[in-house]
Amino acid sequence: xxxxxxxxxxxxxxxxxxxVGSGLAGxxxxxxxxxxxxxxxxxxxxxxxxxxxxxxxxxxxNGATTGDDAFFADTIRSAGKRLAETASSEAKVQxxxxxxxxxxxxxxxxxxxSDLGVDLSVVTQLGGHSRARTHRGAGKTPxxxxxxxxxxxxxxxxxxxxxxxxxxxxxxxxLLTTTHSDGAVAVTGVEYKTEAAGVEMxxxxxxxxxxxxxxxxxxxxxxxxxxxxxxxxxxxPRPGGHDVLTAxxxxxxxxxxxxxxxxxxxxxxxxxxxxxxxxxxxxRGEGGILLHEGKRFVNELETRERVSEVIMxxxxxxxxxxxxxxxxxxxxxxGAAKAAEGxxxxxxxxxxxxxxxxxxxxxxxxxTLREYAEVVSGREGKVDGxxxxxxxxxxxxxxxxxxxxxxxxGRITPIVHFTMGGVAINDHAxxxxxxxxxxxxxxxxxxxxxxxxxxxxxDNRLGGSSLLECVVFGxxxxxxxxxxxxDGHG
Length: 490
Hints:
The chain has 490 residues and is α+β, with helices and mostly antiparallel strands. The protein has helices at 24-35, 70-79, 81-84, 89-104, 106-115, 143-163, 220-224, 242-246, 282-285, 304-311, 334-339, 341-349, 363-377, 465-486, and strands at residues 2-4, 17-20, 41-45, 61-62, 122-124, 134-136, 164-168, 171-179, 185-194, 198-203, 206-208, 252-253, 258-265, 289-291, 316-317, 325-326, 328-332, 354-357, 406-419, 422-423, 430-432, 442-448. It has 2 domains: 2-257 and 420-486, FAD/NAD(P)-binding domain (3-Layer(bba) Sandwich), CATH 3.50.50; 260-416, Succinate dehydrogenase/fumarate reductase flavoprotein, catalytic domain (Flavocytochrome C3, Chain A, domain 1). Helix content is 30%, strand content 21%. A hairpin with a 3-residue loop joins strand 9 (185-194) and strand 10 (198-203).
């Protein structure tokens, strides 16, 4: 049975902006839409609570400073062959244009969040970056929680229930459309369902921000990357929303480009769990190192793709049954642990990190730490044989050796973390019904932002750019959808 939500308003009432997904992309779109004059925003979230995967983000959000042209270059390099070997020169131009928007608008993204009251005062360097540009707060609250909770509170207090309506437990199952005389399809609203009311409809321009498909093990992941189905994931096991978009003609790009994050915690109490906590990349950025059988084996600040590749060439662990896992240790000395104190206390509380004294470590590990300390301190002109150039806040042995010093150690393994593929969009965040490199054909009334989109990250996403992507393209989509709603479209 259908219930038309629009029955609650007459045809002369203002058109609302409809946002599907309550992660950072959706929240950024909602706030910007209301800032831009939208009379109301309806946000649909299929889960019981808002926040999506954004609320789990633990390393921070990238923001370039004035004159940081290297951010664009770092992102281009990280995109790898997917960008460099793009078949069409026009498609390559389109990809690079999206990357330029992402990087050039990063200072404004940081400013947007800071103006809302989010603390982003700590800046660190993550893997694949040529300099420090990833922002997080100085307190104990992880950046994802801090950003999402601040935006939610601002939406509720600044605009109130009459303008911002968050509907949890509501799944959008279909996009409503109309077909123009030239055959082009335009989106006019959504069909959604709830347990209480059944199937309902709402008319208005739509921003799709439902995230990726890294947790859709038996659905989109097995369809596009069946080789990864045996890996654990940081994402909840839920279906991707991509098929809803392709049903109205949206084009998908890079769907086989899936990011494996090199460091997911293996819980010693439940090592075979498929859903795992992320060992934040900032743990390595602040000085943490990776060990296999007590020895370093990789530059910990290489790209996620590279570090994962090196780990997965090591022998697999066999004790977890059907899961593909590895036996690698993440170790933070006192300096690195203090710099990441907010994260460390949580991981220790969860039992994912254990505190040990240096004297209680295996002899091979102690030898590795002494050698590494000499590199960090630059004694005797030593350089890092792994190519690491930034050592965060590592302090052990830099001035003097301390056998009583306490280090933090946890087991990690590569995990399915992020999907770079998704719907093709243009610089206005409109969803395209055309292939990259062809004449762009935007689907009227439909925008997308965040992990649901493709073509921005290529082979590999830089740490800190997922939250940035959500803010930059979320704000673009929210502004554009608000203009469409004001003009009565939808």
